[in-house]
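Record format v2
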Amino acid sequence: MKEIIDQKTLEAIRHYGDATTEEFYRRLRERRFMSTRCTACGDVAFPPRGFCPACHQRDVTWIDLPVRGTLYAFTQQQRSIRFSAPDVIGLVELAGVGHILTRIDAPFELLSIGQPMQLDFYEVSREIVLHQFRPVG
Amino acid sequence: MMTRPAIIGAAALPVRRSLEKSIRDSATEVALDALADAGLGGREVDGLFVSPPGLSGPPGFMWSCALAHHLGLSTRAQALVECGGTTAALALKMAADAVRLGRCRVALVVAVDQRSTDAQADLEFFLKNAVVGLVGLYGPYDAVYGLGAPIPYYAMSAQRYMYEYGASVSDFAELAVTLRTHAKDNPRAEHRKPITTDDVLASRIVCPPLKLLDCSSFSSGAAAVVVVSEEVAKGCSKRAVYVTGFGEHHEPAHFAPLRSPITSFGSASQAARAAYAESGRGPADVDVAEVYGVFSATELMLYEDLGFFDKGQAPRALRDGKTSGEGRTFFNPSGGRLSLGHPAGVTPLLAAVELAEQIRGEAKGRKVDKVDIGLLHAEHGMINGSVVAILEGA
């Protein structure tokens, strides 16, 4: 069943995503967590875009996102289609970017808002690698 | 030629887990009931606006055409509208705007949402469709984290509301209990059995801090309203309910916003401001509000964002009885999304039906005293977009 979910996830990412989405996941497979920054106004987009969603010109460049952030909010799903329950997800605040949805690699009970977090990766399959964060230290 | 649009007919089926009849039979029933309520025949209808007949289910491609054929309606204005949870509110807005501009005189708005699915019949088939559907809904960046419903987003919003404003899970439970009290006298409500705050606090945790009884249910339902020109409304024997203001605002965000707060929602405050400005009314004028709160915590935040209370003050207002007392705004007499039930594609039209019945004094057991002005709110995503309408009795 996991193979079916992974295969359909890939197909759906291609169907609903775009060329930039493919690029984002390709970089995650290389263990690089990146997004795009506008060369004109400097706005950092997340998720990445092939243009600037702030000033709408087309010249953007890929940049590494911060590997450290702070926990903005978190919860856990008792039922998840992908991960075994309970499955902790959260919003991590990255300086100069915003708060982004990510997987949290820690028990819910040990977490608190404002906690420093460190980037990590989670390999779902060879094709799908996700970003995740865990408490620092 | 500009005219004032008015609702003169309204009907809805009881909200239940699944529709008792087929989608087409349900649509027909509410359409004919709403026309009978308006005292009009189908031949007078010249506008038809519908929502997809299963917002999260099979596509509604050409549904307005099929329904016009089935009902025998000849129209000058017709469309199927879709914009997440605001869908039926926008179908109502399109009908009101078409009437206002003279593009039609009698517009029928019909919403049906069948959300009950036979998930277990073929698990593999279900999973394949579910995965693709969820990536389509939550996008290729969020869905892969296992989102199967919008609850985690709203749970994190509730957590931040506690962190930023000192709200508690008891406040959330208190709201769920209040809404259940309202639903007790509403035969249309899906959940009418009385509950206590202890029941809410002891219910299963879905996504902390939200528990089962803090959440609205996936429900099915159907509703219809008839929107007509002022000239037609004046010939009607019942009290006309004029649509005097609309406001709409959509942020450039889908579910979790990148930078905006998740404890106050700009779409709700801006849509409300626009609707108040267009109608010349303010929060203090509103007798009854039907607010699209799909989770207990969310509903409290919306009371604030719609301009009724200062930020962070809704829990106190609730405790002091200021959200369902006489002589001030009464919130969600229907039972709200938590107890009326939440067929998302119909919910805003159920709100319109409730407000029309309150304004016409037809709300029977759940009647709020002296209702002249109602506020309708609907939202999509995690309140990334909102629609607010002001309804006023003639």
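The helical segments of chain A are 2-16, 19-29.
Chain A touches chain B through 44 residues (CB under 8 Å).
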